[in-house]
Design goal:
The protein is mainly alpha-helical. It contains twelve helices and no strands. α2 crosses α3. The chain is globular and about 75 Å long.
C-alpha cells in the first residue's frame, strides 16, 4: 500500500482520534483526586455488599436501605471499638519513642552489641547529633503550624465524607445500575454479560477483602512475638507492618526491615529471631495463606501484579498500588470475554 493512497479523511480521522485521546487523558489528570475517591468508594461498596445482601434478608420487606444503614452503623461501631483499643497505647508508645530518641542515640555509643560497634566505627552518632537540632526544628515547624494541620485534617475529613457518601449511594443504587445496563443488551447476550459482571464483582471483592485480611493477620503475627520479646513500640511497629503489607510484593519486606532494625537497637538475638520468624511467615503467607484467600480470583501473572502495582503507586501512592491490581485483573477478564465471544465473530466477518 502506497502512502499516497491514504485519503485526507483517513489522516484527519487518525489525528482526531489522537487529539481526542490526549484530551481525555488531560481531563482524567485534572480529576485524579476525585477518581481516586470514586475508586475507593467502589471498592468499599463491593467489600460491604455481601453483608448488605445478608442483612437484607432479615429486614422488614427486605428493605435494602435499612440493611445499608445497619451495615454503616455496625462499621462505625467496629471502627470506634478498634480505635478506643489501639489509639491510646499507640499515642503513648509513639510519644515515648520520640522522647527516648536522644537517649537511644547516646546508648548506641556505649553499647557493646554489634550495632554499637558499627555505629562507633563509622562515627554515626556524631553525625546524627550534628543534624539532630536542625531535624527537630524542621519537625517542629512542620507540625507546629496550626493552619497547616487544620487544613490537612479538614481535607482528610472532606475526603472521608465524600467517600462514605459515594459508598452509600453505590450500595443503594448499584443493583439498579446493573439491571439497567444489562437490559440495554440484546436478550441472547444478557446471560453472558451477567456472567462477566459476576466475575468482575467477585474478583474485586475477593481481592479487597483478602488484602485487608492479610494485613490483619500480619499485624497480629508481628505484635505477638514483639510483645513476648518485650520489644518497645510493639504496637506502632505492628500497625506499620500491617499497613505496608497492603503494598503488593514488596510491602511486607519493607515492613520486616523496619521491625528488625528497631529490634537491633534492643537485642541482637531478638533481631535474629524476628528476621527468621518474618522470613518463615512470609513464605507461609505466599505459599499457603495467600492462595487460600485469593485462590484463582485474580488470574494474572506475578509480572502483571508487579507492573500494575508500580504504575498504580506512581500515580496515586499506596491507594493506587492497592486498586491497580484488581483493575489489571478486570482488564484481563474483559479481554478474555471479548476474545471468547466477539473476536471469532469479527474475524469471521
Amino acid at each position: 500500500m502506497n502512502i499516497n493512497d491514504v485519503s485526507n479523511r483517513t489522516v484527519i480521522r487518525i489525528l482526531a482520534i489522537a487529539v481526542g485521546f490526549f484530551i481525555v487523558l488531560w481531563l482524567l489528570l485534572q480529576v485524579q483526586r476525585e477518581l481516586i475517591w470514586v475508586a475507593t468508594a467502589s471498592f468499599l461498596a463491593l467489600t460491604l455488599n455481601p453483608a448488605v445482601v445478608w442483612l437484607q434478608q432479615y429486614m422488614p420487606k427486605k428493605n435494602r436501605l435499612a440493611a445499608i444503614g445497619s451495615v454503616f452503623i455496625l462499621m462505625g461501631l467496629v471502627v470506634a471499638a478498634i480505635s478506643s483499643i489501639l489509639i491510646p497505647p499507640l499515642l503513648t508508645q509513639s510519644q515515648k519513642m520520640v522522647q527516648e530518641l536522644p537517649v537511644l542515640i547516646d546508648d548506641m555509643r556505649d553499647s557493646s552489641s554489634s550495632v554499637g560497634q558499627f555505629v562507633n566505627r563509622y562515627n554515626l552518632v556524631d553525625r546524627i547529633k550534628s543534624e539532630q537540632e536542625q531535624l527537630f526544628t524542621q519537625i517542629s515547624k512542620a507540625t507546629g503550624s496550626f493552619v497547616g494541620v487544620a487544613q490537612s485534617l479538614f481535607s482528610n475529613l472532606i475526603a472521608l465524607i465524600v467517600i462514605l457518601t459515594l459508598t452509600f449511594f453505590t450500595l443503594k443504587e448499584g443493583p439498579m445500575w446493573f439491571n439497567t445496563l444489562i437490559s440495554t443488551r440484546p436478550p441472547p447476550e444478557q446471560k453472558r454479560d451477567r456472567e462477566l459482571m459476576r466475575r468482575l464483582y467477585h474478583t474485586v471483592r475477593n481481592y479487597t477483602f483478602g488484602n485487608l485480611l492479610r494485613s490483619l493477620l500480619i499485624f497480629v503475627a508481628t505484635l505477638v512475638p514483639l510483645l513476648i520479646l518485650q520489644i518497645p513500640y510493639a504496637l506502632p511497629l505492628s500497625i506499620v507492618m500491617g499497613i505496608l503489607n497492603l503494598i503488593p510484593l514488596v510491602g511486607a519486606t519493607i515492613g520486616s526491615i523496619i521491625v528488625v532494625a528497631v529490634c537491633l537497637f534492643v537485642s541482637t538475638p531478638a533481631a535474629i529471631f524476628m528476621t527468621i520468624y518474618l522470613i518463615v511467615y512470609q513464605q507461609l503467607e505466599n505459599n499457603l495463606i495467600q492462595p487460600l484467600i485469593f485462590g484463582r480470583a485474580l488470574e494474572i501473572s506475578a509480572y502483571t501484579v508487579l507492573a500494575a502495582a508500580l504504575i498504580g503507586a506512581s500515580l496515586a501512592g499506596l491507594l493506587g498500588a492497592f486498586v491497580a491490581i484488581p483493575i489489571a485483573a478486570g482488564i484481563r477478564i474483559l479481554f478474555d470475554h471479548y476474545h471468547k465471544y466477539y473476536y471469532p465473530r469479527s474475524k469471521r466477518g
